[in-house]
Amino acid sequence: MHCPFCRNADSRVIDSRTADDGSAIRRRRECTACHRRFTTIETSSLSVVKRSGVVEPFSREKVVAGVRKACQGRPVSDDDLALLAQQVEETVRAAGAAQINAHEVGLAILGPLRELDEVAYLRFASVYSAFTSLEDFETAITALRAERPLDPPSAAPADDDSASVEASEPASH
Known about the structure:
Number of helices: 6
GO molecular function, one term: zinc ion binding
Shape: elongated
Function: Negatively regulates transcription of bacterial ribonucleotide reductase nrd genes and operons by binding to NrdR-boxes.
Strand content: 15-25%
Protein name: Transcriptional repressor NrdR
Radius of gyration: 28 Å
Number of domains: 2
Cofactor: Zn(2+)
Strand order of the largest sheet: 1-2-3
Organism: Georgenia satyanarayanai
Helix content: 40-55%
Largest sheet: 3 strands, antiparallel
Order of helices and strands: EEEEEHHEHHHH
Low-confidence stretches: 158-173
Distance between the termini: 89 Å
Mean pLDDT: 83
């Protein structure tokens, strides 16, 4: 890192702190030549390789934009989408690679989106997985139903005869 004041290539780190929710490191530096101080922000780069071969930086905004289309008309807030994008980035970064295929980003979206909204999940999955028939939707819906926790058993319905007897008896005071 060159000093922005005198262009000297040597500096020493005075202080380091995390920034941006731990995704970056802020370093306070001092130039060894002119002794002026400056701040640097270090982030790890993460690139996405698209199907066409084009490489571009990972963007939470692109994740949100893609998922927002699937969530149109659904009860999903901007905060929900921002949290989903953060979860996707954490999942992708956990793979430990500097470059990741766009397909892997799509897979990382499916899990959190299924938890957020099942209808939006089906919409996204239908495009992402290129559903071609009703059977593809049926298979996805069957899988969603199989993964749902069982509903707690409700109270047994009252017998029709006992309900009518209770209703016809006068209340005692």
